[in-house]
């Protein structure tokens, strides 16, 4: 396999970034042997490009002049193969020019003629784009390029901007600007096009504002779109006011269209000092100010395509003229778009996030450039001062939009979330904000269904935790709640109960096929096929025993009756799913969870019973003063008050205890813990005793707390205020109390030989004489047992 073959594969698999990273790390070392070999590779690749080009040129004649169909088809296939090889060679050369551009300097004039090639299809456009990008990086490094070479380049790029598509326009303008900024020997020909586009847009803007026309005619729309896109890029890459400073025609145009601030402009709402500063900006950079006014006007136009293109142009404009991001009118527009969930404005919302991403990328490029310049003249400049000067404005700007960006992430559209994540990663990576307020949203991002988003954010959280010890755990509960909020928004079926478990990333078997696990109601059926949504967060925090326990305790505290965080039943289920499927590695982890569950249930459960009994009507005098006699479904049913809202609240709180007991039972079975093993566990024991690797983890049926799932069914809510619903509630109260009593007995006895459902079976056997058959699903066993108890007690209550 050749180098170009490998690049072709990388392009198809979208993994070219990894090869680029490899080249960068290799060529950064400045090893003479590596550089010599790289130069030979580059020279060979350029020769290959020329050879393939000549073959394609001669092959074209064969296709045209061939009289036989088979020969024509063979020639067409050969032409396509040569084209693909040529594109692979150019892609490889482009990567070398990124890593070490001076390797390509002597080949710049060889590449220049390709700017005049015809672009008849996507392949030719890709070739053209690669050539332009290489010239952008290489030409500024040439020592003394000839005047004729620069002039030919300028004219070729001018034609490409006039006639090319958006991708070619963007590449051509970037290349033209890089060459002009290095060799300011002549005004770029593209400035003529800029002037033409600006006058055209300004005239349409004035007509629209004065309402002299019914709107932009369809025949004019393509030209308006092209002009908006090009103007935005030109203002990004060129200092237009400096270039046109001595241009007489430009001065006449400005004099004829002197900018005045409209009384209705949002600009007049700001304080006088800020207003004066903006007026001064308009005087010092009149063309930049005019471009801004034109673009913001078109952003408000009723046509969606024109609005989107104008907003895209503003993104390019503010990448260089970042101070305009503090303007009131632009800030208001951005904040409105970031905050809207209207599908009509979805494209504009995504573009706003991309604009902020572009601004941050431009700031990062400036920092890299300043760093390289400092290495050249480190004695004259202080790097710290340079960084502070550049990051000060960027930090002030992004903080204006930071909360809106984080909130915009909670959206069902994948493109919106991806764009928001990119802004967050760039912002935190550059240190423009402190990470504290963003950690809950970052935790939510780490649970995104998009694998690329998850991986990026998990790395970011890991970095934050290493730099700011304790910050991530302190925000963990808020992060879990944000994760629940996210998945409630993005779940596909609004009627479906949200779970905190996802299918493991697909693994490829030895035979090369993808193993697809069996799903039941959207969940993997077996535990080996599933993982917690918050697995990434837990993996980051579990290394430190104290930190891990604090994290687990804070999560389990959410189930406590005295918790300040009031969760819904569905949210409790979501949290329990994660606790059930966290990737526990040492036996201390699940054992600690089990012991904390016992503690919470024993305290909260008794409080719930007391609260429940406190809501009942006084006990009849005819009933004997005996606890066992008092706790019967019949008597409790008769003592129900007229308003049962508080009773329903108590029953809802009891579900937290039920879920925790299901969780305890599930963990005991999953990791093979006996009751004796749990009872002998002490959290205060020395770390070495329980910091042993989990010896086995069973592949069993997935965690399914049936009582909670049953409670979440719509029909359960519908029959809540019926007679049958009230009878069922009385039975549930008795079952809940019996369950607590059995748990207390189990904790007081040292025994082994019963499984994790023992506490439930004990509670139920107290009220029934039925025999419970063993079920392979331990949760179904528990649910069926409760159901049997309820039904039998209901019969007893009715007969009484």
TrEMBL record:
<dbReference type="GO" id="GO:1990414">
    <property type="term" value="P:replication-born double-strand break repair via sister chromatid exchange"/>
</dbReference>
<protein>
    <recommendedName>
        <fullName>Nipped-B protein</fullName>
    </recommendedName>
</protein>
<keyword id="KW-0539">Nucleus</keyword>
<dbReference type="GO" id="GO:0003682">
    <property type="term" value="F:chromatin binding"/>
</dbReference>
<dbReference type="GO" id="GO:0061775">
    <property type="term" value="F:cohesin loader activity"/>
</dbReference>
<dbReference type="InterPro" id="IPR016024">
    <property type="entry name" value="ARM-type_fold"/>
</dbReference>
<dbReference type="InterPro" id="IPR024986">
    <property type="entry name" value="Nipped-B_C"/>
</dbReference>
<dbReference type="GO" id="GO:0140588">
    <property type="term" value="P:chromatin looping"/>
</dbReference>
<dbReference type="GO" id="GO:0071169">
    <property type="term" value="P:establishment of protein localization to chromatin"/>
</dbReference>
<feature type="region of interest" description="Disordered">
    <location>
        <begin position="767"/>
        <end position="800"/>
    </location>
</feature>
<dbReference type="InterPro" id="IPR033031">
    <property type="entry name" value="Scc2/Nipped-B"/>
</dbReference>
<feature type="domain" description="Sister chromatid cohesion C-terminal">
    <location>
        <begin position="394"/>
        <end position="600"/>
    </location>
</feature>
<dbReference type="GO" id="GO:0034087">
    <property type="term" value="P:establishment of mitotic sister chromatid cohesion"/>
</dbReference>
<keyword id="KW-0131">Cell cycle</keyword>
<keyword id="KW-0677">Repeat</keyword>
<dbReference type="GO" id="GO:0090694">
    <property type="term" value="C:Scc2-Scc4 cohesin loading complex"/>
</dbReference>
<comment type="similarity">
    <text>Belongs to the SCC2/Nipped-B family.</text>
</comment>
<dbReference type="Pfam" id="PF12830">
    <property type="entry name" value="Nipped-B_C"/>
</dbReference>
<dbReference type="GO" id="GO:0010468">
    <property type="term" value="P:regulation of gene expression"/>
</dbReference>
């Amino acid at each position: 396999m050749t180098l170009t073959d490998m690049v072709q594969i990388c392009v198809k698999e979208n993994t070219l970034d990894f090869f680029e990273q490899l080249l960068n790390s290799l060529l950064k070392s400045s090893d003479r042997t590596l550089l010599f070999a790289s130069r030979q590779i580059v020279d060979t690749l350029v020769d290959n490009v020329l050879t393939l080009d000549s073959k394609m040129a001669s092959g074209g004649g064969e296709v045209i002049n061939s009289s036989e169909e088979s020969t024509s088809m063979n020639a067409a296939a050969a032409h396509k193969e040569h084209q693909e090889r040529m594109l692979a060679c150019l892609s490889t050369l482009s990567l070398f020019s990124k890593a070490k551009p001076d390797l390509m300097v002597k080949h710049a004039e060889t590449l220049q003629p390709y700017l005049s090639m015809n672009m008849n299809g996507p392949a030719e456009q890709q070739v053209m784009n690669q050539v332009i990008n290489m010239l952008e990086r290489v030409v500024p490094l040439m020592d003394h390029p000839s005047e004729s070479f620069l002039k030919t380049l300028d004219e070729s790029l001018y034609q490409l901007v006039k006639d090319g598509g958006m991708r070619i326009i963007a590449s051509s303008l970037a290349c033209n600007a890089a060459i002009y900024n290095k060799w300011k020997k002549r005004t770029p020909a593209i400035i003529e096009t800029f002037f033409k586009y600006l006058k055209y847009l300004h005239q349409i803007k004035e007509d629209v504002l004065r309402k002299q026309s019914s709107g932009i005619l369809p025949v004019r729309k393509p030209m308006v779109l092209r002009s908006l896109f090009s103007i935005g890029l030109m203002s990004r890459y060129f200092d237009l006011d400096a270039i046109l400073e001595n241009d007489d025609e430009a001065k006449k145009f400005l004099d004829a269209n002197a900018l005045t601030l409209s009384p209705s402009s949002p600009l007049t709402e700001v304080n006088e000092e800020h207003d004066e500063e903006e007026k001064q900006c308009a005087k010092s950079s009149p063309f930049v100010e005019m471009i801004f006014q034109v673009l913001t006007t078109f952003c408000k136009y009723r046509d969606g395509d024109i609005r989107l293109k104008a907003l895209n142009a503003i993104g390019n404009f503010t990448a260089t003229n970042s101070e305009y991001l503090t303007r009131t009118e632009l800030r208001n527009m951005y904040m409105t778009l970031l905050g809207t969930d209207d599908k009509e404005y979805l494209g504009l919302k995504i573009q706003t996030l991309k604009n902020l991403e572009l601004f941050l990328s431009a700031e990062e490029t400036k920092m890299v450039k300043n760093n390289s310049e400092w290495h050249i003249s480190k004695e004259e400049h202080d790097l710290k001062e340079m960084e502070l000067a550049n990051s000060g404005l960027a930090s002030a700007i992004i903080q204006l939009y930071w909360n809106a960006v984080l909130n915009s992430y909670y959206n069902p559209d994948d493109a919106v979330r991806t764009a928001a994540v990119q802004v967050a990663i760039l912002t935190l990576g550059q240190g423009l904000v402190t990470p504290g307020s963003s950690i809950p949203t970052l935790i939510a991002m780490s649970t995104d269904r998009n694998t690329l988003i998850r991986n990026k954010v998990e790395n970011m959280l890991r970095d934050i935790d290493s730099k700011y010890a304790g910050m991530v755990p302190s925000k963990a509960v808020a992060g879990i709640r944000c994760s629940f909020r996210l998945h409630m928004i993005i779940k596909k079926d609004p009627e479906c109960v949200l779970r905190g478990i996802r299918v493991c990333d697909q693994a490829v078997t030895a035979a090369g096929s993808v193993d697809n696990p069996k799903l039941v109601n959207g969940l993997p059926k077996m535990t080996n096929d599933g993982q917690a949504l918050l697995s990434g967060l837990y993996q980051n925090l579990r290394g430190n025993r104290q930190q891990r326990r604090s994290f687990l305790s804070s999560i389990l505290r959410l189930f406590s009756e005295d918790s300040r965080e009031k969760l819904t039943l569905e949210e409790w289920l979501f949290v329990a799913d994660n606790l059930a499927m966290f990737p526990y590695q040492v036996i201390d982890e699940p054992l600690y969870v089990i012991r904390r569950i016992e503690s919470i249930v024993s305290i909260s459960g008794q409080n719930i019973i007391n609260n429940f009994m406190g809501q009942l009507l006084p006990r009849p005098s005819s009933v004997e003063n005996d606890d066992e006699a008092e706790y019967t479904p019949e008597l409790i049913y008769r003592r129900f008050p007229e308003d049962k809202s508080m009773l329903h609240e108590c029953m809802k709180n009891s579900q937290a205890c039920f879920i925790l007991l299901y969780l305890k039972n599930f963990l005991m079975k999953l990791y093979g813990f006996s009751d004796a093993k749990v009872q002998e566990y002490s959290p205060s024991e020395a770390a070495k005793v329980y910091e042993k690797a989990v010896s086995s983890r069973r592949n069993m049926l997935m965690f399914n707390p049936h009582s909670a799932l049953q409670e979440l069914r719509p029909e359960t809510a519908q029959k809540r205020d019926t007679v049958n619903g009230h009878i069922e509630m009385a039975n549930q109260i008795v079952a809940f109390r019996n369950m607590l009593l059995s748990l207390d007995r189990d904790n007081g006895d040292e025994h082994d030989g019963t499984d994790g459902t023992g506490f439930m079976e004990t509670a139920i056997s107290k009220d029934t004489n039925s025999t419970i058959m063993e079920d392979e699903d331990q949760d179904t066993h528990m649910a069926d047992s409760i159901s049997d108890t309820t039904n039998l007690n209901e019969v007893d209550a009715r007969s009484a």
